[in-house]
TrEMBL record:
<keyword id="KW-1133">Transmembrane helix</keyword>
<keyword id="KW-0411">Iron-sulfur</keyword>
<dbReference type="InterPro" id="IPR036094">
    <property type="entry name" value="NadA_sf"/>
</dbReference>
<dbReference type="GO" id="GO:0009507">
    <property type="term" value="C:chloroplast"/>
</dbReference>
<dbReference type="GO" id="GO:0034628">
    <property type="term" value="P:'de novo' NAD+ biosynthetic process from L-aspartate"/>
</dbReference>
<keyword id="KW-0472">Membrane</keyword>
<dbReference type="GO" id="GO:0008047">
    <property type="term" value="F:enzyme activator activity"/>
</dbReference>
<comment type="pathway">
    <text>Cofactor biosynthesis; NAD(+) biosynthesis; quinolinate from iminoaspartate: step 1/1.</text>
</comment>
<keyword id="KW-0812">Transmembrane</keyword>
<dbReference type="Pfam" id="PF02657">
    <property type="entry name" value="SufE"/>
</dbReference>
<keyword id="KW-0808">Transferase</keyword>
<keyword id="KW-0934">Plastid</keyword>
<dbReference type="GO" id="GO:0051539">
    <property type="term" value="F:4 iron, 4 sulfur cluster binding"/>
</dbReference>
<dbReference type="GO" id="GO:0008987">
    <property type="term" value="F:quinolinate synthetase A activity"/>
</dbReference>
<keyword id="KW-0408">Iron</keyword>
<keyword id="KW-0004">4Fe-4S</keyword>
<dbReference type="GO" id="GO:0016226">
    <property type="term" value="P:iron-sulfur cluster assembly"/>
</dbReference>
Length: 541
């Protein structure tokens, strides 16, 4: 418009207007580039207290300007028959499509990368590093922006060497595979390296490394999971949630630190008792601090329980909750079951069946206490059973993601499915911890059946019994896949009678013959590997 006005009012020649337009665009690009560099410096480099507020505001405004509009997460009522159902079925998948461009834009700044690489070399105290990280995430008020920033951090740590991605370096308890390596330097400072086949988990590891790399062992041991609650990524209201990556990686860092210090001092490392609840004639005995915290939730306050029961009865609400819910929630729900029978705590697959039973008993609404794919599954099964009018509600306005479900929508898993489609006859056995969209897309490529941990072995055995020449492709849970193959490998050491007791249509010969055609999903450096029987035999022999 400016060039048009100049031409009209001042009769500037056309070729000069073109040059002026190019010059204006160039100036705009330079200005925007400096804004982006300014954001990277503000977020990645230590800043003075006088400029922290301005940097936070600039980062927030830039992120909100670059973000595309996303579905309104306050639309939590799941109804596949309504116009809004697309907002509740695929918000995370849609949002993730925008993440790559964001990460690339931020990573393009040399300032952020160099700052991350050198931040551990400063003498900045751990509390200050943590506070700086908290400020970064607090400036991002939209949940998807916080997730984007986690993925940005994931891009800043290099992949581990294959020699370091070993079982001894695995972080136990995480759904995704996470590896952690630690070293106690001659200067008495801790050094950490981490990697994961999930970008979200990798980003969380990167954040922890930013805080604790080159910290003293004492500083590492003083850190608590609750200190990370303000990052507001993966933690709900400061509580320790299920299979929490923050908690599991931090605990692994502390265990490795304790062991390395003990080795240097020539003493045996001290550990807390294994967390357990021991049932005795005199009651329950808790061992370990975590178990003690859980034990107190077994006897919730009666007034809170009665308050919940009154609401559930009045509104005719059923509750389906997953086993992994926090013990405080499970304690209240278990106590409420005595007064309101339409409460169920179970695994993912049973949750939907329980919801149908509640609908048959007259419940008008079902609340799902679990991650998003569980809500989707409950909604779908209720629709299939003819209860479209029963409302299904999630437990939060925000996205409640699952790293395993995310992994199933990654390109590596799609490549795995395409390979399966080229080897007919094939059956894709998919773990229930995946979205409906993933299941539907997979079924377009390969006949797909859903399973959970309680029925996966029988599902695979029955499939091979019906079609002996079948190829079975299991995924995306690599842990379960490895365990399944190991179990079938051990079955080759059993007698025909013992195998028949597990499944009447199988014997030693059939188990040996199916092993070369049983595949499971694994990712190594971003490429899917199809582990055949010969490879499995070398691993588990």
């Amino acid at each position: 418009w400016g060039t048009c006005i100049l031409r009209i009012e001042h009769h500037i020649p056309h070729h000069l207007l073109i040059l002026l337009s190019y010059f204006s665009i160039l100036i705009f690009i330079i200005v925007e580039r400096f804004k982006l560099l300014g954001l990277s410096m503000a977020l990645a480099l230590p800043v003075a207290h006088t400029s922290s507020s301005s940097s936070s505001s600039s980062s927030s405004s830039l992120l909100s300007r670059n973000s595309k509009p996303f579905p309104n997460f306050r639309t939590t009522h799941l109804n596949f028959g309504s116009q809004r159902r697309i907002h509740t079925v695929t918000p995370l998948l849609r949002s993730l499509k925008c993440l790559q461009s964001f990460s690339k834009d931020v990573k393009a700044s040399p300032f952020s990368v160099s700052a991350i690489a050198s931040s551990s070399q400063t003498t900045e105290l751990v509390p200050h590093r943590l506070q700086r990280l908290v400020k970064e995430f607090k400036s991002l008020t939209v949940p998807i922006d916080r997730l984007k920033w986690v993925l940005h951090y994931a891009s800043l740590i290099p992949p581990m060497a294959e020699t370091s991605r070993t079982e001894s370096n695995r972080v136990m308890g995480c759904t995704a595979r996470v590896w952690l390596e630690a070293e106690l330097g001659q200067d008495g400072k801790m050094r950490f390296w981490a990697d994961s086949d999930s970008d979200v988990s990798k980003g969380m590891c990167s954040c922890l490394i930013q805080v604790l790399d080159e910290a003293s062992p004492e500083e590492v041991m003083e850190m608590k999971t609750e200190d990370l609650a303000e990052l507001n990524v993966g933690l709900l209201s400061g509580e320790r949630s299920r299979v929490n990556t923050w908690h599991n990686v931090l605990v692994s860092m502390q265990k490795k630190t304790r062991r390395l210090v003990a080795e240097r001092e020539g003493t045996a490392p001290t550990f807390e008792p294994f967390p357990s609840l021991v049932l005795t004639a005199n009651g329950i005995e808790a061992k370990g601090s975590f178990a003690e915290a859980q034990a107190k939730y077994l006897f919730p306050e009666e007034s809170r329980v009665q308050e919940l029961v009154n609401v559930l009865k009045e509104k005719k609400i059923g509750v389906v909750a997953h086993f992994y819910m926090d013990p405080e929630v499970q304690g209240v729900l278990t106590a409420a079951q005595k007064h309101w029978p339409h409460i169920s705590i179970s695994d993912s697959l049973v949750m939907a069946d329980s919801a149908v039973a509640m609908a048959k008993a007259g419940c008008q609404f079902v609340t799902v206490l679990g991650v998003d794919f569980m809500s989707e599954n409950v909604r779908a099964i209720l629709d299939q059973a003819g209860f479209e009018e029963v409302g299904v509600y999630r437990m939060s306005d925000e996205t409640i993601g699952c790293s395993l479900a995310d992994a199933a929508s990654a390109p590596a898993y799609l490549n795995y499915l395409e390979a399966a489609s080229l080897s007919p006859p094939s059956l894709h056995v998919v773990y229930i911890n995946t979205s409906l969209e993933t299941k539907a897309f997979a079924h377009e490529l390969v006949p797909t059946i859903t399973c959970t941990s309680s029925n996966v072995v029988q599902t695979i055995l029955q499939a091979f019994a019906q079609m002996p020449e079948l190829n079975v492709w299991y995924g995306p849970d690599s842990y379960m896949g490895a365990n399944i193959v190991k179990l079938f490998q051990q079955m080759t050491l059993m007698t025909d009678e013992e195998i028949t007791n597990i499944h009447p249509k199988h014997n030693l010969s059939s188990i040996k013959s199916l092993l070369p055609r049983l595949h499971y999903f694994q990712v190594t450096f971003g490429f899917s590997c199809l582990w055949q029987y010969s490879s499995v035999k070398r691993i588990f022999a």
